[in-house]
Every structure is written in structure tokens, then in C-alpha cells.
Amino acid sequence: MSVPLRAITVFHAVARSGSITRAAEDLGVTPSAVSQQVQSLELALGTALVGKAGRAIVLTEAGERYFEMIGAEIDRIMEATERIQGFRSVTTLTVRATPSLSTKWLLPRLAGFITAHPDIELRLDGTNEPTAFQKENVDIEIRHGTGGWPGLFAEGLVEESFRPVCAPSLAEPGGLAAEDLARHLLIHSVKSQVQWAHWFKRAGVTPAARWRRLLFDRTHMAIDAAAGGLGIALESDLMLWGDLRAGRLICPLAAPPRITLVTQWVTCPPDHLRHRKVRAFLDWIRHERDAWAIERDAWAAAAERDAEHP
After folding, report:
1. Distances (CA, A) of 120 to 9, 80, 81, 90, 116
2. Distance of CA 139 to the CA centre of its chain
3. What three-state secondary structure class fits 177?
4. Which of 3, 95, 125, 291 has the smallest number of CB atoms closer than 10 Å to its CB?
């Protein structure tokens, strides 16, 4: 039996989308046509590739292995075909990052990348879900975490400094002592790698057994709440940068304890590094983070001098 190439591309669409209906929409055919093509591929291979779990479809173990083997190749064939047909005049680069990093740090800088690479069409996918690179059409992910993901290239973006911040209406720069903070409403980012309990310990302060809290599961929401005068947040200067520079947020302590971590990591499968578009993005983001670190350090030094000599 000849290899059913059409059926292979249909199976690839089903496996990538996780849905026969969505695959049919992507391919411009009916769901029944998709099902028939998948069945013809299963017949040719002599094994089941797709099963059902309730109303959803799932890949069998054989289907998972087959998709892993053909996924990257089919993507390359489809991209080459679209270029030849003229459907795609530029190369698409898909970058995944958390909504907070996308909003607070990446978005204000993207104009530079777009200007420098007019032939690259950038797609920014803002989500907290880690990428399954074998199944998803994502080129690079900037992942929040501690690093060390087996099988992935992972480069720390930058060392971040965590500090308390609030609106200028709540306190003056350097106007509070560490022990004063627990008397205010404390804003928590529940997924942050630096929490208030750790900060108080580093500051040598034992707060009351309970303190007033406002909790968010997104960093950008916690930052906006602090800028709105709701309380004091504990956040990374990487995320805070735009609000600190604009004066919407200040640090109410003259000399907060220094807490630094790398929490954002540029990740991708090692074979993605051979793509020009991926290398271009890596070069750009490294330049941006180095320039930002220099600017951040100069600002921090000036802020310390101002706090010491108001």
C-alpha cells in the first residue's frame, strides 16, 4: 500500500490542534473527511493513532510517537509550500511568554525588533502554560521558573531584584521602616518566587501572626493594584520598570534587603537554534536585557542617593 501523504498531513493537523473539528476548519474540509483520512492512515500503518476520551479525542501511545517523529518535518514542508505558493511573504516567529512579562517588559521594546527585522512576522503568545514544543508551533518560550528543564536550551534572561513598592500617595520614597510595612495592606503575587514572609525574614522583622493581604495570581495585576494606591506590593524590578521610571511606583524603604533571583528563562529545543529567526530574536533580547540592566543599575544608584539625601 502506498504511503497516504494527504492522510499524514490531516493526522498532523488533528494531533496539533487536539480536535477533529478544529483540524477540519484549518484544512477547509468537513470533520467526516478528516476522520476518513485518519482512518486510512491507521489502516496503512496497521495501528490506532487516535482514540476518544468522552467527547474529546486523544492520541494513542503510537499516535504520540508518530506525531513526535513527523511533526517538525511536516511543519517545514508546509512552510516551504506556503512560501512557494506566495501565501507567506515573511517568516513567522512565535514567542510564548507570561502575560505579565509580555505586558510589562516585552511589549514596550518590540518596536526595535520589528524595525530591525521587517521580514519576520512576530506572534506573541501570552500564557502561563509551559510549551509542549513537540506538539505546539512555538519557536521560543520565555518561561517563568527556576530553570533546569531537561532536553531544552535554557538561558536566564537577567538577574532581577525584588523590592517593596507602592504609589507615591501612600508613602514617600524611603519614608517607611521595614517594621512599618506590615501595618499596610500587603499585595501578594501568589506565583512569585519571593513572598512577603521571606522578605520579612531577610529584613530581620517579625510581623504579626496575621496581616492584611490582597492576593493576585498575575504579577501585572498586583503591580497595577499597587500603582492604584491599594497597598504595598513585593515585585521584581524587571516587571516594575515602566511604573518605577514613570513615577507611578516608588520604594518606600531607604535600604531594603537585597534579594536577587533569575526567574525568567529563554527556552527552546536545541534544534530551534539553527533557525535564523530564532537566532535573531536571541541576539535582540540579549541586547535589550544588557541595555536594561545598565539603565536599571544607574537608576537604582540614583534612587539610593536621593533616599539618603532627600
Report:
1. 25, 15, 17, 6, 9
2. 12
3. coil
4. 3
pLDDT in tens, 172-199: 998 999 999 988 999 999 989 999 999 9
CB proximity list for 4: less than 8 A, separation 6 or greater: 37, 40, 41, 44
Alpha-helical runs (H) found in the chain: 5-17, 20-27, 31-45, 61-85, 99-101, 110-116, 196-203, 219-227, 237-246, 276-308
Percent of the chain with pLDDT over 70: 93
The residue to which cell 483520512 is assigned: 37
In the predicted model, is pLDDT for residue 88 greater than 60?
Answer: no
- The correct answer on CATH 3.30.499.10 for the domain covering 160-261 is no
pLDDT in tens, 142-162: 999 999 899 999 999 999 999
Distance CA 119, CA 245 (A): 32
- For residue 71, the Cα-to-chain-centroid distance in whole angstroms is 23
Q: What is the pTM of this model?
A: 0.69
Tens of pLDDT, residue by residue over 43-82, are 888 889 888 877 678 888 888 888 888 887 877 777 777 6
- Which residues of the chain form CATH 3.40.190.10? 91-158+263-296, 160-261
Read off the pLDDT of residues 123-139 as tens digits, 9 standing for 90 and up. Answer: 999 988 899 998 888 99
How far, in Å, CA of 257 to CA of 260, rounded? 10
Main-chain dihedrals φ then ψ at residue 226, nearest 5 degrees? -65, -45
Q: 120-126 and 91-97 as β-strands: parallel, antiparallel, unpaired?
A: parallel
> Which candidate, 199, 183, 310, places its Cα nearest to that of 250?
310
Q: Which CATH number is correct for 5-85, 3.10.20.90, 3.40.1440.60, 3.40.630.30, 1.10.10.10?
A: 1.10.10.10
